[in-house]
Amino acid sequence: MTQTDSDASTRHAPRPVPRRPASLVALILFQTLCSAFFVFDVIEDLRLGDVGLVHMLPEIGATIGLFVGIVFEVRSLLVLLRRQAHMEKSLGVAAGALAELMEDYFRQWALTPSEADVAAFTIKGYSIAEIATLRGSAEGTVKTHLNAIYRKAGVQGRGQLVSLLIEDLLNAPLVPKAGAAGT
Known about the structure:
Layout: H1 3-11, H2 22-48, H3 53-108, H4 113-123, H5 128-135, H6 139-153, H7 158-171
């Protein structure tokens, strides 16, 4: 298997779908119903007055335990939702920074629109055959574009091209610092 074949197989792997916390919400609702049952049962037992302390203590303890569990689960759910929102925002910033960096490099290297198109597909991990199919051109044309791209970028191949972008991306802050020039 060639390097591009393995890249293509991982590129088309399904991305994880952001899961909504449905199972945690369902658990919280179920525990709320159980808590309500125990509260009403305790109230009914107190109203009747003929129930002993031995019977009441476990019910009161279970009710308190359920309420404490609900509080912790709601807090966990809120933390998870905030963390997910932060990660989605960070991913958007990183994707935007990579796209901007790619465009800057393409301008510096004076790539033609066709070369920039091929370079973008290459950086995304598409094989030569896939790029040719997507662009409706021959594989030989894509190879010619790639050779021009590598020459203009001063790299030897796909790996170095991607490494160049990633290295710059990792060395630069994604979000400009407050008080920096231009802000």
